[in-house]
Every structure is written in structure tokens, then in C-alpha cells.
From TrEMBL:
Family: Belongs to the class-III pyridine nucleotide-disulfide oxidoreductase family.
Domain Pyridine nucleotide-disulphide oxidoreductase dimerisation residues, every copy: 347-449
PANTHER family from the UniProt entry: NAD(P)H SULFUR OXIDOREDUCTASE (COA-DEPENDENT), PYRIDINE NUCLEOTIDE-DISULFIDE OXIDOREDUCTASE DOMAIN-CONTAINING
Domain of life: Bacteria
Cofactors named for this entry: FAD
UniProt domain FAD/NAD(P)-binding: residue ranges: 15-310
Protein's UniProt name: FAD-dependent oxidoreductase
Annotated InterPro entries: FAD-bd_OxRdtase, FAD/NAD-bd_sf, FAD/NAD-binding_dom, FAD/NAD-linked_Rdtase_dimer_sf, Pyr_nucl-diS_OxRdtase_dimer
Xref: Pfam families: Pyr_redox_2, Pyr_redox_dim
Keywords, in A-Z order: FAD, Flavoprotein, Oxidoreductase, Redox-active center
Amino acid sequence: MSMSAARGVPGKRERLVVIGGDAAGMSAASQARRLKGPDELEIVAFERGHFTSFSACGIPYWVGGDVPERDQLIARTAEEHRARDIDLRMRTEVVEIDVAGGRVRARDVDSGAESWTSYDKLVIATGARPIRPDMPGVDAPGVHGVQTLDDGQALLDTLAHTRGRRAVVVGAGYIGVEMAEALINRGYEVTVVNRGSEPMSTLDPDMGRLVHEAMEGLGITMVDDAEVTKILTGGDGRVRAVATEDAEYPADVVVLGIGVHPETALARAAGLPLGEHGGLLTDLAMRVRGHENIWAGGDCVEVLDLVSGSERHVPLGTHANKHGQIIGTNAAGGYATFPGVVGTAVSKVCDLEIARTGLREKDARRAGLQYVTATIESTSRAGYYPGAETMTVKLLAERRTGRLLGAQIVGREGAGKRVDVAAVALTAGMTVEQMTSLDLGYAPPFSPVWDPVLVAARKATKAVMSATS
């Protein structure tokens, strides 16, 4: 009996097919294998690239030299996965999903050979693709996106063979500011061109202004409210400058840090449900809505925002690994759920730490929420203790109830991870008044007597009381 004929027949070994060999896909495959042995479950995984189970979040730090070796970013090699009885097929791209037939069509990237593989259960973990604007010169040598280890290696090769030391980063989100730091560490003169009014659009503009000022203080040239219209090339065809409507910025290398879109072309062609942001829609078990034996996770899905109640696209490795664990458990016959996110993220540029969780002001307005804000300046340690660094904390709270809606923190050492306190408070549905009573750890080397997050909560509580009196 063929595998296709055996689908759903009791007592037959099932086949789990995984599309995508990074965080979500291989976490799902590994968890399923932990729960079911090869006699019960065959696992076939397809990865179109050269690497599996790698940390995309670590690429800027590898490029910048903080992480010396590429292989340090690989959590588990293809050989290690295969040793666990996972049939991992590298350099093989799935080009079609036949939902009705329960099969996928895959193409060998190097030879072009194609074949069909049937499945009983399917995991879609196709990730996200960097936004690459349609403009003249965007494909010129010296212009790089950064999403995979192959991308990072290509950029390093360019840096090693480029005589000039001028770099332009297009975009000032997480990727943009992290790549700006990497290039500064490599000794480049860095210009960041950003179409927004301030860098880090994941923050409110007043907090983004702090990032702008700090980046300029690090020697980075910041160009806000400017959209790149074309990339100019020299006689040798290589990039020589980035152009906006008003100016040109010389460049020996250009890094695109504009963001990513869910990679869901396969899913769209297969008729699977997509959300407002282009990501796959799943239920709490990460099962694709309306499809009993198909799951999806990682950067290709949309997730529930627990604060606003809406669906969001949040491409982070933390979520992808959790999705994979949940999918693998469910695909192996267990039970697990992913309730949603509050939107926590942290980054840095040189010694500046940037963190946020929950809603920005414009998110709250879009959700129809009335709110108050509170912004304070404090220090990471007791002011008298050596090494105390300043930070700015901003909280949003619902106007009538005082429920915490969001937090943003910008500061030096010790600032960024403080956002986790707010993330827990958001998940628990706490009010800012309840936060003021949190029993946080204190000693002068770690915090002032009143932790900066609690100082902000006290101020936000006063703002709520004033607004409702």
C-alpha cells in the first residue's frame, strides 16, 4: 500500500512533513520525535538553504565581530537532526502544497529535480522574507539584505573586499539599528536613512527621539523623514550611493533593514487562510484554521495580541521556538496551546538598550482605548553606586481602569531587560497601581530603592486618578 493510500489508516506509520528547517520547523520536528519514535512516526523536513536551526537574531553580532564564528549561531546541524531519525533534506525547496491530495512538491535547488512527497500531517514553517523595495539598483553588487546565514556570509565577503569605508543602512527598525552597530564595530562611517520621523517605529516618537540622539552621539549620521528612491551604481556596476528625493548619500556597501513580510506564497497558492498582515491564521493549538492536519508557526503566522485582542505579525525567534514545541506536541498526538503575545522586544545599538512591550499610543488609539501616559527618568542602580546609568521609562495605562497597556524603555546598561517586569504585568492583566506593590529585588548594585519601572507605575497611577476624578 502506498503512503498516500495509508493516510488515516489505523496501525500504519504516519508521515509528518515539515516545510522549513529553522526555529519553528525543526523545533516541531524534534518535539514530535521526542514523543513518538520512528516506528510510529516518519518525519521528513525540507530546507532550501545551506543551514538549519540557526539564530537569525545573532547575525548582526556575527557581522559586527561580537560572535567570532558563524557556526556558533547553529543550534543543531543537519547531521544531528538526521541522527535523531529526522529525514532532513537540505537545499530542497517546497514549491507546491496539494492540500486535497495530501502531498507537497519539492525541487532540488542545485539540480532542479522535482518529486512529490505525501503527508499525513503537515507543518508550515516558511518564515519571513526581507522587504526588498522595487527600485533601480536594488540588486546591484554591494546591496545586502540580512535574514539568513547565507546573507550574513555574503555581507561579510563584501566587507572584506570593499576598499571604501562608507555604509548606508536603509531603515531604522530592529534590523537597521543592529546592523548600524555591526558596521560601526567594523570601522565604517554609517548613515541610516529612515522614512519615519524617528528611528524605531516600534516606539512612540518621543522615545524614538532618544534613540536618534543616542545614535548620533555614537557617530552615526541619522537621516529621518527620507525615503530611498534609488540606489546609484558606478561604472563597475557596484553601488556608489543611495538617493532620496532631496539628496545622495555615498555608499560602498548598503544594508537593507526595512523589515520583513510573512513568507506565505505557498500557503496562499494552496488556498490556506491568511490574515490582514499576510500571515497564516491558526487556532490556539497552532493548527491552520479549517485544516485538521496542517499546523503553522514562526514568522509565517499571525498571533493574537493579548492586550488589544487583534491579530499581529511578530517575527521573533522566541515565539518561533515556542510555536515549534506546541506544534510538535500536537502533531504527535499530545495537547498544547499558544495563548498569544504582548509584543515584547529588546535590542541595542552599541551601549544603548531599547525595549518595548504592549501597545504604543497609536496602537491604543487604533484599538479604541482611552489612555494616559507617564514618563520618568531614573538610574539602573542606586545613584551613589558606581556605574549607575540613566534610563527613560514610559508607561501607557487605560484611562478608566488603570490597566497597564504598554511600556517602553531606552537607556544604558541595565535598562533593556527591565521591560520583562512590564511584560509579566501585561500578561497578568495588572493595573499600574497593582504594579507599585510588586516585590522586586533590591540592592544598590542592581537598582534604586524604587525600581525605575515602579517609579513609572506610581506616576501612571497618579495620571489615572487625575483623569478619572
